[in-house]
Amino acid sequence: MKKININELSNYFDQEIEISGFVENIRNMTWVQFIVLRDLSGKVQITIEKSEEQNKELVEIVNNLTVESTIKVRGKLVQNEKVKLNGMEIIPNSIEVTSKSELELPFNYKDLNSANIDTRMDYRFIELRNEKNLLMFKVQSLFVQAMRDYLYNNNFTEIHTPKLIGTASESGSEVFEVKYFDDKAYLAQSPQFYKQMAMASGFEKIFEVGPVFRAENSNTNRHATEYTCFDVELSYIDSFEDVMELEENLLVAGLTKVKEVYGEKIKEVFDVDVVVPKTPFPRIKLEDLYKELASRYNYEIPSEDIGDMNAETEKLTYKFAMEEYGSEFIFVTDFSKTKRAFYHLRENGIPQGYDLIWKGMEITTGAQREHRYDILKSQAEEKGLSEDVKFYLEFFKYGCPPHGGFGIGVDRITMLLLGLSSIKETEFLFRGPNRINP
């Protein structure tokens, strides 16, 4: 007998069925016992009449049952309008306890305010049983699936690049060093170099969804030492405008699907409206943005951040985008070359790239890449990285088309989509400077 999901039960009235799940609640009354059984798809009531002789064994099982145990139930599904839970109940003929929970949980996972964030992280496997968390990961999964589907439908190839690398990539200060037999290796900060290798290999359009590692001692609501990134790269572009257009369409595809499937549930559970943005997203040059923020909000960028943005700038940029364009999204371009990676293509000394701000936070740094070997080598030398990236420079010696790309942090966009306050809540298991377990 196949396992049936609770949300499929309406197809099985007056039939003998088998169903499994967690014990959500037990009511042991004088003449009757009730169990509320929960699986990922929903909840159902199980009813046992104590007075019936054939139920003696079942009654004893329920007398010793604890909430959050898991059980397998066989019985008949019947309609009952008196049952508040979907007007149905299961009349069991057997109950098998497949695992027994301890009587007291470490905290009440149904009330996420009942414990602090660190306690919840210690018992993440329990916290994840909360309805909000289960919905969150369904939404995250669908968002990623819809973006994947968009790229597959536009002839992109999904690749899987190594996370152990022989050279500290991009900059040596933010990588994790690991022992590699009799040598040392590093955990990859991003698949950036290998995405570009794929362009040099003639793949033309690729993407990857996978873990990246940042050895940043950052204890903020938006940073993690390991997170999941959705990376995209494409060839034969004319400018970074082509990259921005692709990202616009990708995000619209993801948000459209999420709104269609979960929009109402997200509003009910998170009190957030899923907004599908209009394209093109507004664009503004960094210098023009500084002027707008100064005149509108009396904000001056700190001297150490000139040529770039900081968290406060991003918040005000969102406020400006909503006031001026009615858009949750805005592209910011024309950053200083001292604040951008050496592999960004430059025109008149200006990196041909952008940051994408959504709801007051940067979710992407994208760019057209420098694909000409001599210029790329010179820009690496300018940053003092020519030896560190020697293997990477080899990719461009034998021809490479103009290309560009971007990466989107999956955990961060989930946080912004659902209006959550910390990336700790949106990673399956958070990793930060002070957390490596469970």
Question: How does this model look, in words?
Answer:
The radius of gyration is 27 Å and the shape is elongated. Helix content is about 30%, strand content about 25%. The protein starts with 15 loop residues before the first strand and ends in a 21-residue tail after the last helix. The strands form four sheets. The protein has an eight-stranded mixed β-sheet with strand order 6-10-11-18-17-16-13-12, with helices on both faces. It has helices at about 55-65, 115-120, 125, 130-155, 190-200, 240-270, 285-295, 310-325, 375-380, 390-395, 410-415; strands spanning about 15-30, 30-40, 40-50, 70-80, 90-100, 155-160, 165, 175-180, 185, 205-215, 225-235, 285, 330-335, 345, 350, 355-360, 360-370, 405-410.
The CATH homologous superfamily of the largest domain is called: Bira Bifunctional Protein, Domain 2
Strand segment count: 18
Structural class: alpha+beta
- The helix/strand series, from N terminus to C terminus, equals EEEHEEHHHEEEEHEEHEHHEEEEEHHEH
Per CATH, the architecture of the largest domain is 2-Layer Sandwich
Distance N to C terminus = 36 Å
Supply the number of helical segments. Answer: 11
Question: Mind telling me the CATH class of the largest domain?
Answer: Alpha Beta
Strand order across the biggest sheet?
6-10-11-18-17-16-13-12
Number of domains: 2
Residue fraction in strands? 25-35%
Largest sheet: 8 strands, mixed
What sort of overall outline do the alpha carbons produce when their principal axes are compared? elongated
* Poorly predicted sequence stretches spanning 5 or more consecutive residues: none
What proportion of the residues is helical, as a percent range?
A: 25-40%
CATH fold-type name of the largest domain:
BirA Bifunctional Protein, domain 2
Mean pLDDT score, rounded?
A: 96
